[in-house]
Amino acid sequence: MNARLLAAFLCLAAVSTGCVIEDHGPRYPGDVRMSWAFDGARCDEMRDVQGVDIIIDGEILENGGHYPCNANGFDGIVLHDFAPGAYTFDAVAVDYENVALFTYHGTFVVDGDVAVNINFPVGGTGTGTYAIINWKFPTEAGSQYPTCGQAGVAFVDARVDDGAWAHFNCNEGSEGRTVSTPDLAPGQRFLEVVAMDSLKRPLYYFGGPFTAVAGVPATVTAETYAIGGAAVGWQFYEGSVRLSCSQAGVTEVGVNFKDIYTGQWVYGVAGQWFSCNEAPAIFEFLRPGRYFVSFQASGTGGRFYESRNDLPPIDVFAHDFPGVQDALYAPLDRTK
């Protein structure tokens, strides 16, 4: 039993109050191993952080106390040969212009080697954020996810909300690799990913929400699913008389797909809307299945047109994308 443990044991055995242990044993120099994180996030998740500056009162540090955020795979730095004693320090995370982003104040005691964990508080600072994205392709239960080559995917397009599409080679965000979005404002966001073959034909799709938190990057895995397409058009009738868009007084047509097995509408309650003269409408991101297609449109003078509820369903097949020449047209009868 060492001297410190023995003293503590004797103090407890005495069952007395006010027992004070004075340790006059030797103190030892040591190394200080500082590691840092950003509300738990790593350096590779904080792309605006270039380095960390360390200031220790009374100490002159190598390189002026300026250190990269990550060196040789380690988010931190080891400082050598500190004399025994108590130290006060400040840590400052800086960007690529050497502007301070986050700060931390702390203390440590050297009596041999010591580890100091620094967790910069960054959440809620009002700074922007971004998302780290990777994608996967459909697999059978219990099987490994296929590689880009096995899935037949050469390129991937991705965007957040209705932003511009970014184009990637498939392997940039697959098999352990990731890509990053542009800077995002905090809040609810929606990610879309389209995987394509070498001819840039869509094969798989992902669409889903995620939450962007200030200062902390979001990590999103896009679990894509096989997609197919449909081409549908519309024709207006008042009785047996066929009308053009202008004759019907229609400028927009709403289209929606209802899964006949689940009863769910693909495009919510509102559906997708198209310019009346845009027919046929081309859909490319539908799950394979069988759908009832609904059409509706409002015309001038309070007129309303809609498709019948006994239209035959259409089948959507994986990786099959009908074009304009294959479009199926539905009659829209005036009901008001």
Commentary on this structure:
The protein is mostly beta strands and 336 residues long. It has 3 domains: 24-120, Immunoglobulin-like (Sandwich), CATH 2.60.40; 131-226, Immunoglobulin-like (Sandwich); 228-334, Immunoglobulin-like (Sandwich), CATH 2.60.40. Helix content is 6%, strand content 46%. The protein has 3 helices and 24 strands. Strands 16, 17, 18, 19, 20, 21, 22, 23 and 24 form a 9-stranded mixed sheet that branches. A 5-stranded antiparallel sheet has the order 10-9-12-13-15, with no helix packed on it. A hairpin with a 5-residue loop joins strand 5 (85-94) and strand 6 (100-110). The protein is elongated and about 105 Å long. Mean pLDDT is 88; it is low at 1-17.
Features:
Immunoglobulin-like, mainly beta, nine-stranded mixed β-sheet, elongated, 24 strands, 6% helix, five-stranded antiparallel β-sheet, disordered N terminus, 336 residues, 3 helices, 3 domains
Query: On the 0-100 scale, what is the average pLDDT?
Result: 88
Q: Approximately how much beta-strand content do the residues carry?
A: over 45%
The top-level CATH class of the largest domain is Mainly Beta
Low-confidence stretches: 1-17
Termini separation comes to 95 Å
User: Any idea what the shape is?
Assistant: elongated
Structural class by secondary-structure content: mainly beta
The CATH topology name of the largest domain reads Immunoglobulin-like
- Helices, by number, come to 3
> Largest sheet, if any?
9 strands, mixed
Using DSSP, what is the number of strands?
24
CATH architecture of the largest domain: Sandwich
Helix content: under 10%
What is the helix/strand order? HEEEEEEEEHEEEEEEEEEHEEEEEEE
